[in-house]
Amino acid sequence: MVKMEEKKIVLTKPMTIEKESDSDASYKAPNLMQRILSLFKNVRPGSDLTRFQLPPLFNLPKSQLQCYGESVYCTGSDLLSMCNRGQSPLDRFISVVAWSISTTRPVIFGVAPYNPILGETHHVSKGNLNVLLEQISHHPPVSALHATDEKENIEMIWCQRPDPKFNGTSVEAKVYGKRQLKLLNHGETYEMNCPHLVLRILPVTGADWAGTVSVRCVETGLVAELSYRSSHSFLGIGGNHRVVKGKICDSSSLKLLFEVDGHWDSTVNLKDTSDGKVRVIYDAKEVFSGIGAPILKDLESVWPTESANVWGELSQAIMSQDWEKARDAKQKVEEKQRELVNERESKGETWISKHFVVSNNKEGWECSPIHKSVPAAPIIVQ
Known about the structure:
Layout lengths: L1 E2 L6 E2 L20 H8 L19 E5 H10 L5 H7 L3 H14 L9 E3 L6 E6 L2 E9 L4 E8 L4 E13 L3 E14 L4 E5 L3 E5 L5 E12 L4 E8 L13 E8 L4 E9 L3 E6 L5 E6 H5 L6 E2 L10 H4 L1 H8 L3 H25 L8 E6 L2 E6 L9 E2 L2
Parallel strand pairs: 3-4
Antiparallel strand pairs: 1-2, 5-6, 6-7, 7-8, 8-9, 9-10, 9-11, 10-12, 11-12, 12-13, 13-14, 14-15, 15-16, 16-17, 18-21, 19-20
C-alpha cells in the first residue's frame, strides 16, 4: 500500500486466487449475515441496484475502475505478447482465448469496490502497456477502457455496463458491452464479452462467475464459446464454482477444432479433436504469481480524477477500519458530485468525456478513444 499525504493516493494489491485472509479486502467486518440482512430493508426482489450505495463497511478499498484495470495489467506472465507472437492465426486465437480467461478475477462475497464517479479515471502502466479507464456515465454506470502497447503494436478497447438485479436470494450482475483486442501487426481484431457475476445469499453465501463468453476473430472466422458454470452440488453446498468448459470452431466450415475444459482459478486444458492430444493453455498460478500493489512513480503527474486520488481518504479510513471517518469521506465525495451536477444543470451544460467519443444507441453504449495511443502513466506495475 502507498500513502501520500498531499493527494492521499492509496494503492492496494489486486485480488488473487489465494485465501481471503491474504487479501487486502479481508478486513474484519463483524456479523456479515447481520449486515446482509440489514440491506434487505432497502431492496426488494427485482430492484435496480445501479443507484444503490453501499455503506463503507461493505466496500473494498478501491474503485471498480481499478478492478477493471487490474484484470488487464496485473498478470505475472505476459499473455498479451504470446497472443502477438503466435505463428499462425489458430495459435494466436488460442492465446487470445487464454488471455480472455485471465481477465476473470476472484470476487469476495460481502464486499464490493466503489461505484466510480462521472469522469473518474484510472491510468497505469506495466512495461510497454499503458492502460487508461474513464467512467463515461454514472447513471447507468458505464466504463470505458483504452490500452496500447506500441512495442507489440497491440490495442484494447472496452465499453461495458454492469446491470445488477436483486432476485431475493441472490444478486445477479449482467455485464453488457463489447471488448476488443487488436493485434495490429497481423491485422486481426478479436471481439468478446465477459461472464456475469452471481452473488449467492441463500442457502449458502458465495460469489460465482456464470454465463457464456464468446470470443470471435473478425478476419479469420475462428470462434470460441466458453461456459462459466458450477459443478454439481446440493443446494449450493459442495462442488466447484469456477468451472469453464467450451469449444473452438471454424465458423466458415462449422468444424469443431478443440474442446476447452478446466477451472479458471487453476488450469484450463485444450483437447485437439483431430488426434485427442491434450495440453494446458492457461495456468492461473502463473498469471497471479508475484503480483504486488502498483507503485506511485510521479505524484505531480497524477490527475485529480485518478481513482486512487478521488477515493484516497476513504480507502485510508477503510484500511485503518475507522468507519466514522470512512462514512464522512464517502459522503464528502458524493456531496461534491451532487454539487457538480447541480452546477452543470444550472448552466445548461452537458458533461463530455475527455478521453472517449461516446454514443448510446439501440445497440447499446459504444466508445472510441480520442487519442491513438495511451501515454505512459505516473502509476506503474512491476
